[in-house]
């Protein structure tokens, strides 16, 4: 539970500092408020849902590890667009 809440505090702290970095947006949106609400809802739903869900099975963990490793290797691939390297994935 502490790990879930610490990630919640860290992410919200990051978005609260956003007005210091971006003073005026062209669209006149209040971006930090929108992002904070979206992030809080997503993190709170994870805390509520995964407390009651059965633990992942070993096969699912292995599959997730393999897919994550594959995704990391795919991120290495890049292409040159307008003389800049851009990630293809």
Tell me briefly what this model is:
The chain is mainly alpha-helical and 89 residues long. The chain has four helices and two strands; from the N terminus they run ααααββ. It catalyses: riboflavin(in) = riboflavin(out).
Architecture overview:
- This protein is flat.
- The protein has one domain.
- It is mainly α and 89 residues long.
- It has four helices and two strands, in the order H-H-H-H-E-E.
- One of its GO terms (cellular component) is plasma membrane.
- This is Riboflavin transporter.
- It comes from Schistocephalus solidus.
- GO terms for molecular function: riboflavin transmembrane transporter activity.
Beta-strand fraction estimate: 5-15%
Number of strands: 2
Q: How are strands sequenced across the largest beta sheet?
A: 1-2
Q: Could you give the order of the helices and strands? A: HHHHEE
Can you tell me the residue ranges where pLDDT is under 50 for at least 5 consecutive residues?
none
Estimate the helix proportion, in percent. 55-70%
* Mean pLDDT across residues: 69
Helix/strand-derived category reads mainly alpha
Biggest sheet details: 2 strands, antiparallel
Give the overall silhouette. Answer: flat
With helices defined by DSSP (H or I, 4 residues minimum), what is the helix count? Answer: 4
State Rg: 19 Å
InterPro entries: Riboflavin_transptr
Membrane topology: Multi-pass membrane protein
Catalytic activity: riboflavin(in) = riboflavin(out)
Subcellular location: Cell membrane
Write the layout of secondary structure elements.
Blueprint (H helix, E strand, L loop, with lengths): L1 H15 L1 H4 L9 H20 L7 H17 L3 E4 L2 E4 L2
Antiparallel strand pairs: 1-2
